[in-house]
## 1
Amino acid sequence: MGVPRQQEVRIHNPTASTTVNPGDATTFSVVFLPRQEGTIENVLFVHSSLGTFTYSVRGKGTGSAYRIRPLVGGKLPVNGTLISPVQLHNPHPTTLRVTEIYTSGGDLHLELPQIGSQTQHSATLWVSL
């Protein structure tokens, strides 16, 4: 769970518009980030000068091969801090090097452990199971 998947969606505009010329098309990305396993259905709203277009969307949330558990539903006081180690399973036969971490929300700060200089990290930071 929590493994994003990006898919391109093509929109064709056969009429006049201020952003897409008649007969032209545009694309935008839709990211599916499930927070639970199973089928998830929702509605995508595209607002335009010609009105709102609705599209039914559906995706299937599956467990992560890396066994990363979602961190959802936590409650903290204002300016509170939660330190929750993220455990990562390496399903590959070779060493997995974590080079970046990020979140889909803007209210959470994540960082890799800092040991020594920015370019030299301890071997304990590599995941090899």
Note: The chain has no helices and four strands.
## 2
Amino acid sequence: MKSEVHIRKVGTRDEFLTRILDAAALIKKPEDQLRRTIRDLRTRVAKCMYGADHASQVQVSLLLQEGMTMYGLSHKNVLSVLGVSIEDHTAPFLIYPYRGDTNLKRFLQTCKLSAEGVARVLTTQEVVAMALQIVHAMQFLHKKRLLHRDLATRNCVVDQQLKVQVADNALSRDLFPADYHCLGDNENRPVKWLAIESLVHANFSTASDVWSFGVLLWELTTLAQQPYVEVDPFEMAAYLRDGYRLAQPVNCPDEL
């Protein structure tokens, strides 16, 4: 993580959305289509900062710092942050580019319904292709000396062409509260995605990101099942120390 964060202020939420509307005239986008996009963007921004009104100043500052690690980055598989809106008496929120993406975890969960003809079926080749895109994103971040610390499908987005982008770890904390647990120190952690050194000693490295990527691969092949669902969060450290690991998913080829 960068030691110093330069926050680009974009004004209030309404000012930012108004500028988008004004820009639409230049690109001649149909107004009804644009307004749908703005409505989706407004919803998405609100979700990113859900709960911030009730968070402490330290929590809000940490959330912004985590989110702004992606500010100014340019890579096709990294979801960069455009800026942050800060206004009086309102929780700040991060601004992300909008492409009609879906949260990757939610997308995988909808694929579970494919047997009923509701959603598409993912092939092994498509799963591998998405995984490789995430690898490319993480290689880019590590070359920039950036650690993710919370790599999981919930912190990725995917479009209709299965193009995947890795987002910061502020993207989905409040969207998937069941993925985070407090172990008695008032800090919610993605316990079941963490390497043992991160879980026990809060030590993070490129190696711990690789560990989390392994859990993410398991999520991809199981269509976002919960890892270690049978293990109590307070027992995870002992479980890992005893040498237990995630089992190979039923539909996962031995080659993977």
Note: Strands lie at 83-87, 90-95, 102-103, 156-158, 164-166, 181-182, 188-189.
